[in-house]
Each structure stands twice: as C-alpha cells, then as structure tokens.
Write a structure and sequence with these properties.
About 80% of the residues lie in helices and about 0% in strands. By secondary structure, the protein is mostly helical.
C-alpha cells in the first residue's frame, strides 16, 4: 500500500500539485535504504534536495558603496525643469509681443497702401482728363 501511495505522490510531484507535507513524505521515503527498484532513479534527486536545503552560504559578499546617482539626477531634472519654465515663459511672451508688433506693422502698411491706392485712382482720373484734353487739342491744331 505504501508503494502505491509513493507512486501517486510522485505523479502529483511532477505535475507540481503536491503540498509541503507530501514533498516531505517523498524526501523521507527516498532518504531510506530500502527504495523500490523501479523508483531508485529518483532517489539521488530527493537526496540532493534534502542536502541542498541544509546548505548555507557563509562567505562574506563585498558590497560596493552605492553612488547617489538618483539624487543627483533628480537635482538635474529640477534644474532643467526650472530653466525650461523660466525661459519657456519668456519665449512665449516674446513670441506674443513679436506677433503683436507684426500685426501692428501689417495694419499700418495696409492703411498706407489703401491711401496710396485712393490717391492713385484720383491721379488716374486726372490722367484720363488730360488724355481727353490732348486729343481735343490735336483736333483743333489739325483743323487750323
């Protein structure tokens, strides 16, 4: 009966569905001298697990001192952010001022060109009168 139970526990073990108590029972079975011949192949594995569980690492691990890169990177990030906010705000204000100056210059130029166009139209009307005067004058001189 015990052999059937061990085989059943082995199947559960390889399916990764055993409890800690069942694994302890398997380790206890495979650590004895009398193991079934068809299960002897698993004996070294469970014996290794039992020995490995008791091993401890006793050497001293030298740790390098941690550098404070995170602290300095956060200081640098804050400096960049402050720099960006200060000069970014100045840039936006300067851009708005330049846009307002450009709009003012555009409107003044538009006024000047409209005034020039009105006076040019008046001048064109006067030239039309001069042309008519010239034609009449030529007719008079030809008749003489």
């Amino acid at each position: 009966m015990e052999l059937d139970k061990i085989e059943e526990l082995l199947e559960k073990y390889f399916e990764a569905s055993t409890t800690v108590a069942e694994e302890e029972a398997l380790r206890a079975y495979f650590s004895q001298e009398s193991v079934a011949t068809h299960l002897e192949q698993y004996s070294p594995m469970f014996q290794y697990f039992s020995k490995a569980k008791e091993e401890r690492f006793t050497k001293q691990v030298p740790l390098k001192p941690r550098r404070n890169y995170y602290r300095w990177s956060s200081v640098a990030a804050v400096a960049v952010l402050a720099f960006g906010i200060y000069f970014g705000n100045d840039y936006l204000e300067q851009k708005a001022q330049d846009e307002a100056d450009a709009r003012y210059a555009y409107n003044e130029t538009k006024k000047a060109l409209n005034l020039l166009a009105e006076n040019f139209n008046k001048g064109t009307e006067k030239v039309a009168y001069l042309k008519e005067f010239e034609e009449t004058k030529q007719k008079i001189y030809k008749n003489n």
